[in-house]
Amino acid sequence: xxxxxxxxxxxxxxxxxxxxxxxxxxxxxxxxxxxxxxxxxxxxxxxxxxxxxxxxxxxxxxxxxxxxxxxxxxxxxxxxxxxxxxxxxxxxxxxxxxxxxxxxxxxxxxxxxxxxxxxxxxxxxxxxxxxxxxxxxxxxxxxxxxxxxxxxxxxxxxxxxxxxxxxxxxxxxxxxxxxxxxxxxxxxxxxxxxxxxxxxxxxxxxxxxxxxxxxxxxxxxxxxxxxxxxxxxxxxxxxxxxxxxxxxxxxxxxxxxxxxxxxxxxxxxxxxxxxxxxxxxxxxxxxxxxxxxxxxxxxxxxxxx
Length: 305
Fold this sequence. Notes:
Layout: E1 4-11, H1 15-22, E2 31-33, H2 38-46, H3 53-56, E3 62-69, H4 75-88, E4 94-97, H5 105-108, E5 116-118, E6 122-126, E7 138-142, H6 154-163, E8 172-176, H7 182-189, E9 194-199, H8 202-214, E10 222-226, H9 229-232, E11 237-243, H10 246-255, E12 260-272, H11 276-285, E13 290-296, E14 299-304
Parallel strand pairs: 6-7, 8-9, 8-11, 9-10, 11-12
Antiparallel strand pairs: 1-3, 1-4, 2-3, 5-6, 12-14, 13-14
């Protein structure tokens, strides 16, 4: 099976930020085309001032980020992750990918997404896989479709591990930017009283509802709303989850307290390590204390109160 090449076109001024996000989808680096300082770099690195005419004619207003992903690394999830993260960071972008010759690339990654234990009590089971022995774990049946969130990405997994100790039979959960619904459904399977998800993406909302029903949860126990947090969500919650990106977390943290009961826990994930100090400062400014910090492969998750 062929690898997938993902080509991301962004404004040149955003190529460094785009590269930081893209680099988190692969363990072996990326390739960036940025021609803004072509002459200076040619002189500094190669000590030449004669540059190929084709390079000189490159569009310097845009930057290109190239990623090469093998099938077992879930190229479809990587593409959806990039789209959601760039949109959340307000980076204008176009994403192209080369189609695999053998099969539909959107389905290739399924062959490599297998049942996966998360935390102490959960087992994520893709709906096309069978599980003969869950080892006493609660099974979460998942069909992510085109929405981000299978549990294989560090941001999702860290958030699921972080939420587990805070779920009890009285917990009411709010999942902001719910994607596939994996976090809110996980909370319900772990015993939460009810959960509400909200997402601006219609595909994510539909997918989250379907995953809720697949695991036995529907309204009123599990609601999924389409829209922004402040426009659609009402009430107060014991556990608020936000697996999004640094800039969105900074903005959300200014207003999220109005949706939290006294003593509620606020779990944020999707933070690139380069933005840690900035997010931590914003959380402190919004009145939050970081109780726990989780890290994996350059991604961070904070448990706050």
